[in-house]
Amino acid sequence: TIGALPPEPIRQALDLGCSNGALTNELASRCGRVVAVDASACAVAHAAERDLPANVTVVQARFPDEIPAGEFDLIVCSEILYYLTPAELWRAMRWLCSRLEHGATVLAVSWRGHGDVPLRGDDVHDLLEQELGPWHSLDARHPRYRLDRFDGRRARRPDRHRRRWPRRPRDRPQ
Fold this sequence. Notes:
Mean pLDDT: 88
Helix content: 10-25%
Low-confidence stretches: 158-174
Strand content: 25-35%
Oligomer: single chain
Shape: globular
Radius of gyration: 15 Å
């Protein structure tokens, strides 16, 4: 995941679904500031116990309903998007799209296995690729995980004035 980060300096990163803070700790060495978010109080406590660097703030919040304020250059969605309901995923994609339009980079990483989650990782990434396609800059598929990067500085959404956002889950193309 760290190897997939854009090469330019990252001032502020948002680490969604930070869990115990392992990835957050690595992001801190590449970013000026990292805001790490998890919905679980237990995960936030474990991350806080990790002795993270001073440029990291850990927050308990539920994505996409509770997003910390700030302008982020990088948004990392690691092992979180397949836990969202379809309606939450559409809200998340609308927000991610708005961040891309402002030049942010979005990095999504998901496990490719099957489990007790609302969505499969491949389904989430296929939908991200479909909806955020103009910004798609990296597609890394491995047997156990999938990683996609979308760079807001790369392109502007060409059909922005024609696309009806927000689309509801029932509007999802089959």
